[in-house]
Write a structure and sequence with these properties.
heterodimer; A: alpha+beta; Immunoglobulin-like; 2 domains; 5-stranded mixed sheet; 3-stranded antiparallel sheet; 3 helices; 8 strands; 27% helix; B: alpha/beta; Purple Acid Phosphatase, chain A, domain 2; 5'-nucleotidase,  domain 2; 18 helices; 25 strands; 21% strand; globular
C-alpha cells in the first residue's frame, strides 16, 4: 500500500500554511532568487524584444548551442490552456549560470530568463503563454558555454474527444 | 446444444492448465471457461469504455480506422479481413462478427445483441469462480453514454459497478460530471470497495496527486500493483470547467517513478490501467520500463491478442478491450521467483443471448430504469437502414444528426463531434428516445449556430484531423474526425497539419477563406457557450425524427481520401 494518506495530510498542511502566509512567502522566495528588483541589462532588453530565435540568440551572445541530455525539459505534449503552459527545466550540468526559456513561434520568442547563483540547484519552473503550436526551447549557460533542448507543445482548439 | 452456443463456448475457452502458454499467443482449444486458470496464477479481469450501456445492444466495429506513417498496417489500425488475417480468425464465425464490421446486419441477426451488465455479471462470476483472488479492473468511460446515466449523474453505473465487483478504476468521461461528483463517490460509496487510481491527475496549484497513483493488492500472495492512467486530455477534449482545479497530461516521467516505487515496495506484477488510447499505450510501453502490461481503453479497439512491446528492460503487453460492454478481457499471469514467467489472454465477447441474465443485476437495473422507462421507450421514428457511428469519418447515425441540425437550424453546414461511443440499430428498427440519447447524452449538449469564415472552418478541420492523424501518438486525442454535414472535402491523413484538408466545397463551389458561412453544431466546450445555453441536441434530433417518421438511410458524407489506397485500416 502506498502512503497517500500521509501525503495528503502534509499537502493540506502545506496548503493551509501558504494560505496564512499569503503572498509574503512567495515574494520572499522570488526575492531570494534575484527576480525582484533586478535591473535589466541592455543585452537582456534586446533578447526579450527579439522576434526570432536567431535574433534572440545573437543578442545573448550565443553561437549555435549544443543539444544536451543533461537538461530535462518538462512540458505537456498538448497544452491544457495556451495562456499558462507549465514549463520545468532541470539541469545536471556543472556550473550553471543561466536558464532561459523560448517559445519559437511567439511574437517575442524569449519567455523567461533566470540567473542561477553559484551553489543553487539548477531547477526552474514557470508558466509561459503560447498562441499556437510551437517548440519550447530550454537554453542553459554552464561554464561559459550554451546548451539546449527543445520539445514541441501543441496548442489546440479542443473538443471532439473520445 | 445449439450451434451458436457451441461456437460461443469454444470462443470463450482458454487453454487448460496443461496448455498454459508461456510465450505469446492464445489457444483456441475447446473447453470450459470455468476451468481455465492454473492454480496460483495472478488473474486480472478488465472492462473498459462500456459507456453506461447496461442493456444488451448492437455495436458495429469500424470499417475505417486508418493508421498513418509508422502506424500504417499496425494494430489497432486493421479492420475487416485484414484484422481477421492478422489474428488468425476464420471469416464468417461468431469471433469474426465480434471483431469486425463484415456482413454486420446478417451476422447481428444470427448472433444477437452483445453486452449488458446482467449477462456480463454472469460471465464475470463464471470466470472469477475459477480465479480466486482475481481483480476486476474498470478502465473508465463507465458512467456516461446513456440518458439514464446522465440523469442520475452516473449513479446507475456506480451501483452497477459495485454490484459487478469492480476493484479498481480510472477515469475519462466521469470527469464531465464535475470534480465534486467523482470525489464524493470515491470517498463515499466506493470507499473500501473500489479504488480510483490516476497517476497523471494533479492539482493545478501545487501539483499534488488528486487520486491514489496506484494500489498494491495481493493476489494469491503475490503483490500486484495497479497504476492508474486517466485520459490525458480530459481538460482539452471535454470542457475545462468541469475540473477547473485538476491538471492531466501523459506524465511519462511520473509514471516511471510510480512503477519504480511500486517495485521498490515489493510489487511482483505491475500493470497500468490506462485510458490513454491504444496508440499512446504502444508508444508508452516502448519507452517506460517495468510494466508487465498496459490494460488499455479509450480508442475502443477490440483487440483479440495483446501486442508484445519490447523496451529497455523487457516486454510489456498492450491490450485494448473494446467498448459498449461488448467484451471482458481476462489476463492470467504465471508468477515464478518474484516475476512474471508467462501469460495467457482472452478478450471474451459478451453475446447476450448465450449468457443467462444475473438476477440481482437485473433487479438493480430495473430499479434504476423504472423512473425513466416511459421517456426512454418513446418511439420517434423507424429506420429503413443500418444506423451506426464508429469509424474515422461520418457514420450513418452521425449523418442523421447532421441532417437534423442543418434542417432545424437552417444551416448549409453542420459539425458533430467524432465520438467513438454510440450504439448501432439494425434496418427496420424503431428509433426510440433511448437510441437518440445513446448517441448524444453528455453534460454539455447545447446546439449552436456560428458564423464562421472559410478559413475558420479549415482551422477546425485541420485541428481535429491532427488529433486523429498526428504521426506521434502522444499528440493524438483518441477521438475520430469531426463529422461534417453539407461541406465536402478531401482529406490526406499522411500530410502535415495545415495541409491535410483540401478542396473544401459547398454545393460544388470552393469554400472561400474570407466568406462567412452559417455552421450548426453541438457540444461546445467553452464557458461562454455554456452560459449562453441552447436546446439540447437530443430534443432537436427527436423533433426532427417525429417529423420524418421513417428515416431513409443514405450513404454518409465521406471526404475523398488521398494517399490511403491499400491501407488495411479501411475496407
Amino acid at each position: 500500500m502506498n502512503n497517500m494518506t500521509d501525503n495528503q495530510t502534509i499537502n493540506l498542511q502545506r496548503r493551509n500554511a501558504l494560505k496564512v502566509g499569503g503572498g509574503l512567502g512567495l515574494l520572499a522566495l522570488f526575492g531570494s532568487l534575484g527576480l525582484v528588483g533586478n535591473v535589466m541589462a541592455e543585452s537582456d532588453r534586446k533578447a526579450f524584444a527579439a522576434k526570432s530565435m536567431d535574433e534572440a540568440l545573437t543578442a545573448m551572445g550565443v553561437i549555435i548551442p549544443e543539444n544536451s541530455d543533461a537538461i530535462k525539459l518538462t512540458v505537456p505534449e498538448i497544452a491544457e490552456n495556451g495562456a499558462v503552459v507549465p514549463v520545468t527545466v532541470i539541469s545536471t550540468l556543472a556550473n550553471v549560470e543561466q536558464i532561459s526559456i523560448f517559445v519559437d513561434k511567439n511574437p517575442n520568442v524569449l519567455a523567461a530568463s533566470f540567473t542561477i547563483p553559484q551553489g543553487t540547484e539548477s531547477m526552474v519552473t514557470t508558466r509561459v503563454k503560447m498562441g499556437q503550436t510551437a517548440n519550447v526551447i530550454a537554453l542553459v549557460k554552464a561554464g561559459g558555454k550554451f546548451y539546449r533542448v527543445a520539445r514541441e507543445v501543441k496548442v489546440t482548439a479542443g473538443g471532439c474527444g473520445g | 446444444m445449439d450451434m451458436n452456443r457451441r461456437e460461443f463456448l469454444q470462443l470463450l475457452a482458454l487453454a487448460s492448465a496443461g496448455g498454459f502458454l508461456l510465450e505469446n499467443g492464445v489457444s483456441h482449444a475447446a473447453g470450459n471457461v470455468a476451468s481455465a486458470a492454473p492454480k496460483g496464477s495472478v488473474s486480472l479481469l478488465h472492462i473498459t469504455d462500456c459507456h453506461a450501456q447496461l442493456n444488451p445492444i448492437y455495436f458495429r466495429e469500424p470499417e475505417i480506422n486508418l493508421g498513418v506513417g509508422a502506424n500504417n498496417g499496425q494494430v489497432p489500425h486493421l479492420v475487416g479481413e485484414a484484422l481477421l488475417k492478422h489474428f488468425g480468425i476464420r471469416p464468417g464465425t461468431m469471433d469474426a462478427h465480434a471483431f469486425t464490421s463484415l456482413n454486420f446486419v446478417e451476422a447481428a441477426k444470427k448472433y444477437g445483441k452483445v453486452g449488458g451488465f446482467a449477462h456480463l455479471a454472469t460471465l464475470v462470476k463464471q470466470v472469477r469462480a475459477d480465479r480466486p483472488g482475481s481483480l476486476l479492473l474498470d478502465g473508465g468511460d463507465t458512467w456516461q453514454g446513456t440518458g439514464q446515466a446522465m440523469w442520475t449523474r452516473g449513479q446507475d453505473m456506480i451501483d452497477a459497478c459495485l454490484a459487478l465487483g469492480v476493484d479498481v478504476m480510472t477515469l475519462h468521461w466521469e470527469c464531465t460530471y464535475g470534480a465534486a461528483r467523482i470525489k464524493e463517490t470515491e470517498e463515499g460509496v466506493f470507499k473500501g470497495k473500489i479504488d480510483v487510481v490516476a497517476q497523471n491527475v494533479k492539482t493545478t496549484d501545487f501539483g499534488d496527486q488528486v487520486f491514489k497513483p496506484y494500489v498494491i493488492r495481493e493476489i494469491n500472495k503475490v503483490p500486484v500493483a495497479i497504476i492508474g492512467q486517466a485520459f490525458p486530455y480530459s481538460t482539452i477534449a471535454n470542457p475545462r470547467y468541469f475540473v477547473p482545479d485538476w491538471s492531466y497530461g501523459i506524465q511519462e516521467e511520473n509514471l516511471q517513478l510510480m512503477i519504480d516505487e511500486a517495485r521498490g515496495k515489493g510489487a511482483q506484477v505491475v500493470v497500468l490501467l490506462s485510458h490513454n488510447g491504444m496508440d499512446v499505450d504502444l508508444k508508452m510501453a516502448s519507452r517506460v520500463t517495468g510494466l508487465d502490461a498496459i490494460l488499455g481503453g479509450h480508442t475502443h479497439d477490440g483487440i483479440p491478442k495483446p501486442v508484445e512491446v519490447k523496451n529497455r528492460s523487457g516486454v510489456t503487453l498492450v491490450t485494448n478491450a473494446g467498448s459498449n460492454g461488448k467484451f471482458l478481457g481476462v489476463l492470467d499471469f504465471e508468477v515464478k521467483g518474484g516475476r512474471v514467467a508467462g501469460y495467457q489472454y482472452k478478450l471474451m465477447p459478451v453475446f447476450s443471448n448465450l449468457l443467462a441474465a444475473d438476477k440481482d443485476m437485473t433487479a438493480l437495473m430495473q430499479k434504476h430504469r423504472a423512473p425513466f422507462e416511459a421517456k426512454l421507450s418513446e418511439k420517434l421514428a423507424t429506420t429503413d437502414g443500418l444506423l451506426y457511428r464508429r469509424g474515422n469519418f461520418n457514420g450513418s447515425f452521425d449523418q442523421l444528426i447532421l441532417d437534423a441540425l442543418m434542417k432545424e437550424k437552417d444551416a448549409p453546414i453542420a459539425f458533430s463531434p467524432g465520438f467513438r461511443w454510440g450504439t448501432s440499430l439494425l434496418p427496420g428498427s424503431a428509433i426510440t428516445m433511448e437510441d437518440v440519447l445513446n448517441q448524444t447524452a453528455i453534460t454539455y449538449p447545447t446546439t449552436t449556430v456560428n458564423n464562421m469564415t472559410g478559413a475558420q472552418i479549415k482551422t477546425v478541420l485541420e485541428d481535429v484531423g491532427d488529433n486523429l492523424f498526428n504521426p506521434d501518438p502522444y499528440y493524438q486525442q483518441g477521438g475520430d474526425m469531426v463529422r461534417v454535414g453539407g461541406l465536402e472535402y478531401t482529406c490526406e491523413p499522411g500530410a502535415a497539419m495545415g495541409s491535410r484538408i483540401q478542396d473544401m466545397r459547398l454545393n460544388g463551389k470552393l469554400i472561400e477563406a474570407d466568406k462567412v458561412y452559417k455552421v450548426a453544431g453541438w457540444a461546445p466546450v467553452s464557458e461562454a457557450a455554456r452560459d449562453k445555453g441552447g436546446e439540447p441536441i437530443w430534443d432537436l434530433v427527436a423533433r426532427h425524427l417525429r417529423d420524418e417518421k421513417v428515416v431513409k438511410v443514405t450513404t454518409p458524407n465521406m471526404p475523398k481520401l488521398k494517399g490511403m489506397a491499400g491501407n488495411p485500416g479501411m475496407i
